[in-house]
Specification:
Length: 491
């Protein structure tokens, strides 16, 4: 696996991701996606939407506004509490996020520490500013929301916020979506969109940025009916589990089936277990290595006040095991907060029992698109010494470009262009005439193009082309009349 720095260099060289506005030296925590990056990102989002919305009867989608009514953030608690602790250098003034700094310096898990506990650790270990080595001031909370003014007014009533998560709009619009989509419990609402956090220390390339996208799902249930009808589909699925107990006793994570984790009470509810397995399987179905993942339970200290149980799906990045997706059991906290602040009825009428109730969110899979983007690239990246180039073994479903169309010699370019024109209506292809055929194959490997089609002199006679597979370099002769269907089925 490459380091995060090597991956960032590769991404820039190949046109996946650039620091934003690089001609002005970039802006920390913001990135631009190039020609290949925008395709990969769109493909990840499309696959997520397909499996989480289109292929399910029990989930409806929505798309909320980015600048959100300030009352939404008051109700959710973000205005008051969406904070990280910040250490400020007493001499040069550099600001550092306290928990990640302590974690890196002391090699311990520090999530959930109070301000006093952080100050104590800083003093005890004589921690100093990473830039000028001077002492730190007392730790301060820092709210991560970006604020803005709406309309041509300056007064505080015009203040609003760029959303720091997509989730709250799914609660604020809950009743409308449920009624419009004629949903019956249990059901989910899904959303993909931008989120903004004024991170104190953006770092590790796309891992922690200030503008990113989330793919989130709120899954609502009737609290009196906790059973998951789909649990049998995932019971035999196994994955690495790192429970609160294992973290306390210093045990390693261990592989378990979902059935075992439920039987032993490691995961409390069937729905939570179902969604954890489903998200893990989603990554595996798109080519990620399932053994690079584990589910880690939040220990009591780091759990949010509203959550009854929280698990993270973590991935083993080259810089350690890190959160890829968070999944809290939020109970009815958010809907109750919005009921209280908006004074609107957000309960649902349950036909069977003829009662009104406020549903509970049993699981909230919340996944950052940029972190998923990194995971797929890390697992696809192969430095092939024999070929002398990087081979990006992305699943054909995610590959930015599906087919490279080449002519063996320039003389055949007109014939080749006809093949390209035939394919481009249904598959995103490139028509590459630059350099030797070997050079073009190498370029295609590095772009993650799963199939290359070469037109040669025999094509004129046998009306067939050579199709080369990226991962095996195996070549196959395919009739022009079958080519489109063949490639569509393989992609
Ligand atoms: P962390 O502990 O890493 O700051 P978090 O617990 O604050 O993450 P959540 O609020 O649970 O993150 O957000 C859900 C998901 O959104 C995360 O699992 C991650 O994939 C993504 N995400 C959150 N913050 C960022 C960020 N700054 N840059 C990129 N992705 C992010």
């Amino acid at each position: 696996m490459p380091t995060i720095e090597e991956l960032a260099t590769f991404c820039k060289r190949k046109g996946f991701v650039y620091p934003t506005a690089e001609i002005y030296n970039g802006l920390s925590g913001f990135f631009d996606f190039g020609p290949l990056g925008v395709e990969l990102k769109n493909n990840i989002k499309r696959e997520w939407w397909k499996t989480h919305v289109h292929q399910r009867e029990d989930i409806a989608g929505m798309d909320g506004s980015i600048i959100t009514h300030p009352k939404v953030w008051e109700a959710s608690g973000h205005t008051a509490h969406f904070e990280d602790f910040m250490l400020t250098c007493s001499k040069c003034g550099q600001k550092t996020r306290a928990d990640t700094f302590l974690e890196a310096a002391l090699k311990i898990k520090v999530e959930g520490l109070t301000a006093d506990e952080i100050n104590e650790q800083v003093k005890k270990h004589k921690l100093a500013c990473p830039s000028c080595k001077s002492s730190f001031k007392e730790v301060q909370p820092f709210n991560l929301m970006f604020s803005t003014m709406v309309g041509p007014k300056e007064e505080s009533s015009a203040k609003s916020y760029l959303r720091p998560e997509t989730a709250q709009l799914m609660f604020a619009d809950f009743k409308l979506v449920a009624e419009n989509a004629r949903m019956k419990l249990p059901f989910g609402i899904a959303q993909i969109g931008k989120a903004f956090r004024n991170e104190i220390s953006p770092r590790d390339f796309l891992f922690r940025c200030r503008e990113f996208e989330q793919m989130e799902l709120e899954f609502f249930i009737n609290p009196k009916n906790q059973g998951c009808p789909f649990i049998d589909e995932v019971k035999q699925h196994s994955l690495f589990v790192y429970s609160e107990e294992m973290q306390k006793t210093g045990e390693e994570h261990k592989k378990m089936t979902i059935a075992d984790a439920l039987k032993k009470g490691v995961i409390k509810t069937e729905w939570h277990a179902y969604w954890l397995a489903t998200e893990h399987l989603w990554f595996a179905s798109l080519g990620a290595n399932p053994d690079h993942f584990r589910i880690r339970q939040h220990v009591a200290k780091e759990k949010s006040h509203y959550a009854t149980e929280t698990w993270d799906l973590e991935y083993e990045f080259p810089f350690g095991w890190k959160e890829l997706l968070g999944m809290a059991n939020r109970s009815d906290f958010d809907l109750q907060q919005h009921i209280k602040h908006s004074k609107k009825d957000l309960s649902l009428f349950i036909e069977e029992t003829k009662e009104k109730l406020v549903p509970h969110v049993v699981a909230e899979p919340s996944l950052g698109v940029e972190r998923a983007f990194l995971v797929f690239l890390f697992d696809a990246y192969h430095d092939d010494k024999e070929r002398g180039n990087i081979v990006l073994k992305l699943s054909p479903k995610l590959a930015p470009v599906k087919v490279g169309v080449f002519s063996l010699v320039n003389k055949l370019n007109d014939e080749t262009k006809k093949v390209y024109d035939l394919l481009k209506k249904d598959l995103f292809c490139v028509f590459d005439t630059g350099g030797s055929i070997g050079r073009r194959y190498a370029r295609a490997d590095e772009q993650g193009i799963p199939f290359c089609v070469t037109v040669d002199f025999d094509t004129l006679a046998d009306k067939a082309v050579t199709v080369r597979e990226r991962d095996t370099t195996k070549q196959e002769r395919v009739k022009l009349s079958d080519l489109k269907l063949y490639l569509l089925s393989r992609c």
